[in-house]
Amino acid sequence: MRIISGLHKGKRITAPKKLPVRPTTDMAKEALFNILNNRYYFDDLVVLDLFAGTGNISYEFASRGTKQISAVDADYGCVRFINETSDAMEMGIAAYKSDVFNYLEKSREKANIIFADPPYGLPLESFEKIPKLVFEKELLLENGLLVIEHANQMDLSHLDNFVEKRKYGGSIFSLFANPSED
Predict the structure, then answer these.
(1) pLDDT digit string (tens) for 151-162?
(2) pLDDT tens, 48-107?
(3) How far from chain centre, in Å, is Cα 72?
(4) Distance CA 89, CA 19 (A)
(5) Domain 30-176 CATH class label
(6) How far apart are CA 26 and CA 7, in angstroms?
(7) How many H-runs (helices) and E-runs (strands) does the chain carry?
(8) Could you give phi then psi for residue 168, rounded to 5 degrees?
(9) Read out DSSP for 13-66?
(10) What residue ranges do the domains of the chain occupy?
(11) In which element (H, E) is residue 10 found?
(12) 61 within 8 A of 39, measured Cβ to Cβ
């Protein structure tokens, strides 16, 4: 994987082969950040990266100037790799070992962007639980965005607060936002 833009643009990061991950492709990541670049100023964001895996998305935010990034993954090897990589590149990412659903249940941390990339093999109910918890716990800041990456065979458009979906190769990004305050 490589960092697409920002301070560490072009930097390649090689994760240990034993990690149980499926990193977001460079093509999909670039498309996602083009969307976000048109909506947000990265320096001001608070980001929560769920099912963080290798930290691919967290590194991209950090490279673009985001200073408050929390990465959550249940695998100790992933969390250790994120911490080591973040420290080596002086990114300041806070990585936590936790079941994502337990983390969301207990978290009081609010974010502008919450990115979730669960294992594609999880059942639909698990994917549906992510926005349910995020909005029940009011974890998105004003004008915030929840992005869930999932396989193109899955549809999350029936869920509350769904805004749109974007397809890139075999992946889809489903976007959710707080209801507009009219």
Answers:
(1) 989 999 999 999
(2) 999 999 999 999 999 999 999 999 999 999 999 999 999 999 999 999 999 999 999 999
(3) 9
(4) 20
(5) alpha beta
(6) 17
(7) 5, 7
(8) -140, 105
(9) ----TTS---PPPHHHHHHHHHHHHTT--GGG-EEEEET-TT-HHHHHHHHTT-
(10) 30-176
(11) none
(12) no
